[in-house]
Write a structure and sequence with these properties.
This protein has 256 residues and is of the alpha/beta class. It is built from eight helices and seven strands, in the order E-H-E-E-H-H-E-H-E-H-H-E-E-H-H. The termini are far apart.
Length: 256
């Protein structure tokens, strides 16, 4: 059985160092500056935040620009830093196997991280580093407009599902709540993305990071089982989309 939970959205403040509304600059971007994923990638490549100064290559994210599913990890590791692609090491190979288990490929989904450069020594990203990367991630969410966001690990879960219990308690569960990416940075910011369901909320599935399964066999088996939740939630999401489409068609017909 899939556990579905609806929560109130967290209150969000502007990222550290971000200019107040109406005073944004190129050095402190808001998601409204980006009209395409290519523009986001160029901005990440040009980023000079403290984390980016020590990177080998930026890791922008990759996949289907119109994906139903977006997977958000924590941070690039050693292999990702060398290749400039997300999830290319052992954890990435495991992720490919997990996607295949539910009939998906990398080209079907969009994969990205909470930060887009490797923290030194593979340490956890610092709060200010997460804040600096948020405008880029926010823009990716708005542009892809996924119907389902899959959080991989505690940092990703902490951003999108901050009021839930620990990942060890909620892994494999589905949630529906407002998306922090729908918070506007300024009056000129873009409108909330269009993948929301009946109540304007976003679907989420919280999972362990695939790397956790490489160290403990019992966690690997849990992750494999939990991944099936994605398939179940997609069935619900697609049904919602069909109903919404039918409602819109009826409205159009009644007007004409």
């Amino acid at each position: 059985m899939v556990s579905f939970t609806s929560l109130d959205p967290p209150s969000l403040s502007a990222p550290a160092g971000q200019a107040p509304a109406g005073e944004e600059s190129a050095a402190n971007p808001t998601s409204s500056h980006f009209e395409s994923l290519e523009a986001v990638a160029k901005a990440i490549e040009a980023c000079t935040c403290s984390l980016c100064k020590e990177r080998t290559k930026p890791v922008m994210g990759e996949g289907n620009p119109e994906a139903e599913v977006m997977l958000i990890g924590e941070a690039p590791g050693f292999n990702e830093d060398k290749q400039g692609r997300p999830f290319v090491g052992a954890a990435g190979q495991f992720l490919d196997e997990l996607l295949a288990s539910i009939g998906l490929k990398r080209t079907d989904v969009f994969i990205t991280n909470m930060v887009h450069a490797r923290p030194p020594g593979n340490r956890d990203p610092l709060p200010e580093e997460l804040d600096a990367s948020w405008p880029y991630l926010k823009a990716q969410i708005e542009l892809v407009a996924p119907k389902l966001i899959v959080t991989l690990g505690r940092h990703s879960k902490g951003k999108f599902l901050p009021d839930t219990d620990s990942i060890s308690r909620i892994h494999g569960q589905a949630f529906k709540r407002k998306n922090p990416a729908d918070e506007v940075d300024s009056p000129a910011d873009r409108q909330p993305h269009s993948a929301s369901g009946f109540d304007g909320a976003q679907w989420y599935v919280a999972l362990y990071h695939p790397a956790a399964g490489l160290h403990k066999q019992e966690l690997k088996e849990t992750i494999i089982k939990d991944f099936q939740t994605i398939k179940k939630v997609l069935t619900v999401v697609r049904a919602e989309s069909l109903v919404l489409s039918q409602i819109e068609n009826r409205k159009t017909q009644s007007v004409s």
